[in-house]
Amino acid sequence: MKSLHTSFVVPASAGPARAATPNPKAFTLIELLVVISIIGILAAMLLPTLGRAQQAARRIKCANSMRQLGMAEMMYSGDNDGQYAPRMAPFWPDRLLSYYTVSNLLICPDETREGLDPGGLGLLNRSYLVNGFDDWFKAVLQGTNYTLFLNHQWPEGMKEAALREPTETLLFGEKAETSRNYHVDVDNNDQNAEIDGSRHNTATKSGGGSNYVFTDGHVDYMRFPRAINPINLWAVTDTFRTNLYAGTGAGGTGN
Question: pLDDT digit string (tens) for 27-80?
Fold first, then answer.
């Protein structure tokens, strides 16, 4: 009887065990730190650019809203014998509502919490002021009629046809966030006290600017103080327009 022998075939790939070697594709600690440093440098370079792009986007959105408000005022004038909304209650945001319809147009994207109503009513319901044209009314109204105008009781608005330089006369501007005004009255120096001439791009008036709507309907971004110097673009009459007149604050009641 023959004995059975079992043969085992050792695979050719098998060999003596070898020690594990480091993965040549793995990062060393130094290389990882270098990569993190490079990412940090790139982020520091790109973030300011991204911030400026976001600022520009907010400014453009604000300008588009103001353009629609300017169109609303012009349509109102067309429906009311060529007169802008009068400087009396209900004030312009309510009078023009049927022409611009979307109330969030009244709030600038760059409005901050400084504009919150201390009475707890939330944001003041507008970021913009309309021209009160008080210098023109001061020239054409007499006695008790001008007193009614100052007290927000004169029922007529500025006549659009009376504008001599519509491409160089302002209709809307961006108000200071704490202002409760509805109008800019140049005899009250509102163009300085109630208008934010540096709403966009910087917190300092020396480098920033704001959007403005002109009475011909176009919108422009102007750096401070282009809107008031050397020509006061809020004014209609030469006396106020040439900046030779210093408003005394006696010409209005703050609205």
Answer: 687 777 777 777 877 767 766 655 567 778 888 999 999 999 999 999 999 999
Measured between alpha carbons, how far apart are the two ends of the chain, in Å? 124
SS3 readout for the chain: CCCCCCCCCCCCCCCCCCCCCCCCCCCCHHHHHHHHHHHHHHHHHHHHHHHHHHHHHHHHHHHHHHHHHHHHHHHHHHHCCCECCCCCCCCHHHHCHHHHCCHHHHCCCCCCHHHEECCCCEECCCCEEEECCHHHHHHHCCHHHHHHHHCCCCCCCCEHHHCCCHHHCEEEEEECCCCCCCEECHHHCHHHHCECCCCECCCCCCCCEEEEEECCCCEEEEECCCCCCCCCCCCCCHHHHCCCCCCCCCCCCCC
Render pLDDT for 191-229 as a digit per residue (tens, 0 to 9).
999 999 998 875 444 568 999 999 999 999 999 999 999
Please say whether the beta carbons of 118 and 54 come within 8 A: no
Query: Please, are residues 215 and 169 in contact by the beta-carbon 8 Å criterion?
Result: yes
Residue 176 pLDDT exceeds 70:
yes
Least confidently predicted of 142-151, 154-163, 234-243:
234-243
Q: Mean of the per-residue pLDDT values for the chain?
A: 81
Contact 99, 79 (CB under 8 A): no
Q: b or e along 70-90 (b: 16 or more beta carbons within 10 Å of the residue's beta carbon)? A: bebbbebbeeeeebbbbbbee
